[in-house]
Amino acid sequence: MSKSDKFKLSMAGLPVMENLNDFSRLTHISNYTLFQLSKYSDKYYKHYYIPKKSGKPRLISQPCRKLKGIQSWILNNILDKLCVSNSCKGFSKGTSIIDNVDPHKHSSVVLTIDIKDFFPSIRRDKVYNIFKAIGYNKFMSTIFTNLCTCNGALPQGGPCSPKLANLSAWTLDVRIQGYVGRRGITYTRYADDLTFSTTNPQKLIKRISTITSIIEDEKLHINPSKTRIAGSARARKVTGLIITNESFGIGRQVYLKVRAKIHHLTLNREQKNFDLINEVQGWLAYLKNVDKLRYKKAADYIRSLKEKYPATLISQIILPPLILEVATVITAVE
Name one Pfam family in it (predicted). Predict the structure, then answer.
């Protein structure tokens, strides 16, 4: 490793490593274990399928405990210290789904594009180039790449995969932002969801072919079934949230489904339906984060049901401790 590469790593606050001895010293894992997990990493995964929203199977590749531990170390000590593009709003510290939706709320037309098989599309050569570019030598870049990939690509289920996917999409983000930004089009990316918005529908429609070409040139593939453009006549939806000119939220239809789940807790007097309880608790946490107005409505509804049906499962729902403060703020705004 050259002095310039060592200096580059040190200046970035990254651990300087030239060989397995350095890696072993920093991680307190033996050279033998590191070598075995790197050379035969594909054998240390458990593979299974879970259904997507569409019903199609999604392959999950879960690393074994030791490999997952090493991947977590790489994530915490190396990858999390690297910056992603300004357009990236998902799977990055300090960002959330709100950051992805907020820039688009004043637009009159929204285009959403989904990248097909995002993680599997990030091949090992892109991962290798990330580690090499930040200053690691060929040997350590290969070791890191082996440890973070499975069957030649990023595994869906590996701790490093989201951050490595975001880093590998840096060029994609920069190229798209450079093209649409100077044309008055707002662009953000939340993992594999690309969102574009503007106040002029024709301006956006004219750019779709070039945007598509940039994506394909980056060796990524668009999912046509999830490509959607919406103007004033259709619900403008960004990463699951419906936006208006001034705000965003889950929308009336989704809220009614959540309300129905809440009411269903009053129909069961047996204290055993933990799945439904956990689902409602999850919705409350989500609402509090992305749609405070409907969160207040749901909380008020739960309080009224607890008074009417104290002996049912609704009594086990715990409202977050800041509910009164949130309700007060919302009421004041209204």
Answer: RVT_1
